[in-house]
Design goal:
single chain; alpha/beta; seven-stranded mixed beta sheet; 9 helices; binds pyridoxal-5'-phosphate
Length: about 350
């Protein structure tokens, strides 16, 4: 067996030690006589798993007690509706920053429910950077202010958070959660599809401040009400049991093998630096994101020639660097280098790019 270096934007690589541990427990978890996949979510064994996952997430991310952690389904995309349904309940206004495709989708969904304003956008720059936010555009009576922290498709990230005063800051952190420390107290709500940096697909994690729970609109479907899930400890209905268990293993890996999120960030910054340093001196490849907005999770680049891009993607795959093609909407290349991508994977990719460059300039 040989494993490839998988640069997919999600679902993406999982740490090898996590996969091995899961494999070793696949037929029988502990002395339960069954797989986690087969367990009742109400069983004693499973209760320990879900409670342990939450406790670990709280510890690793340093989540204060006045925030609830919810393990949901429906992906980050469901949160595009769930956020306005629950939070847009006083002035009925919400401000959004358009920094890419997902934030635009979130904005469009929210528009169905109230007075939603795009206060800044970098669409004109093809989302190659995080837009500047003019405070005069922001509404102090908005029910919340929404950003997509790391823009998976374009490879940009908010290096500084917008100042929103008393307006709760809501962030889609699908592609940057657990990549570095995040000061949860700066946010009213954080949400993430787990399939990028936390677990296999199927799990959506929401971290929400207590005071923002319990004010959902009347029309809100029961399954879309944060209070329903908070009151039931994410057990209102069947949660994505196996993904939650995998999330626990990933959190144990971060805590015990990596040494926490500060250590994780150091590794990730170094990994991204190796790739960006090469892109900055390459005569063939060019980074797409403006330097001041560069993501350490998704690195986008092009040769400037779409045929050559396609040739590179094909050659890379043949050499064990798979899924390096850019998002279908933008083309070019994208190396998603989440937590589980080893430094060695980046070093080998750069060596391969250097070889490719020699043959093509
Ligand atoms: C992948 C992604 C989404 C979509 O997530 P789903 O879980 O597939 O709905 C939304 N936002 C960001 C930032 C993403 O990276």
């Amino acid at each position: 067996m040989s494993r490839v270096y998988n640069f997919s934007a999600g679902p993406s690589m999982l740490p090898e030690s996590v996969l091995k541990r899961a494999a070793s427990e696949l037929l029988e978890y502990g002395t339960s006589g069954q797989s986690v996949m087969e367990m009742s979510h109400r069983s004693k064994e499973y209760t320990e798993i879900i409670e342990g996952t939450e406790a670990l997430l709280r510890e690793v991310m340093n989540i204060p007690d006045n925030y609830k952690v919810l393990f949901l389904q429906g992906g980050a995309s469901s949160q595009f509706a769930m956020v306005p349904l629950n939070l847009m309940n006083k002035s009925g206004k919400a401000d959004y920053v358009l920094s890419g495709q997902f934030s635009t989708k979130a904005y469009k969904e929210a528009c169905r429910y109230g007075d939603v304003k795009a206060v800044a956008s970098s669409k004109e720059q093809n989302f190659s950077r995080i837009p500047e936010i003019d405070p005069a555009e922001c509404r102090s009576d908005a029910d919340y202010f929404h950003i997509c922290m790391n823009n998976t498709i374009y490879g940009t990230v908010f290096h500084e958070l917008p100042q929103t005063g008393d307006v709760p800051l809501v962030a889609d952190v699908s592609s940057c959660i657990l990549s570095c420390p995040i000061d949860v107290t700066k946010f009213g709500l954080l949400y993430a599809g787990a399939q990028k940096n936390m677990a296999p697909a199927g799990l959506t994690v929401v971290i929400v401040r207590d005071d923002l729970i319990g004010h959902a609109r009347d029309i809100t479907p029961t399954m879309f009400d944060y209070k329903v899930h908070a009151d039931a400890g994410s057990m209102y209905n069947t949660p994505p049991t196996y993904s939650i268990y995998m999330c626990k293993l990933v959190l144990e890996w971060i805590k015990n093998e990596i040494g926490g999120l500060e250590a994780m960030e150091k590794i990730n910054v170094n990994k991204a630096q190796i790739l960006y340093d090469y892109l900055d001196k390459s005569k063939l490849f060019k980074g797409c994101a403006e330097k001041s907005s560069r993501s350490i999770m998704n690195v986008t680049f092009v040769t400037g020639d779409t045929d050559l891009d396609a040739e590179f993607v094909k050659a890379a795959a043949a050499n064990g660097f798979v899924n390096i093609k850019g998002h279908r909407s933008v083309g070019g290349m994208r190396a998603s280098i989440y937590n589980a991508m080893p430094t060695e994977g980046i070093e080998k990719l750069v060596a391969f790019m250097e070889e490719f460059e020699k043959k093509h300039v």
